[in-house]
Amino acid sequence: MNIGIDIDGVLTNYERARMDYATKLCVEKNWPITVNENEYKEQKTFNWTEEQLNEFWYKFLFSYVVDGEPRLFAQEIIEKLKKEGNKIILITARDEEGLTPEHYGEMQQLTRKWLEKQNIKYDKLIFTINEEKLEKCLENNIDLMIEDCPSNIAEISKKIKVIKFDCQYNKHVTGDNIITGYSWYHIYRIVNEEKEKKVEK
Question: What is the pTM of this model?
Answer without folding.
Answer: 0.95
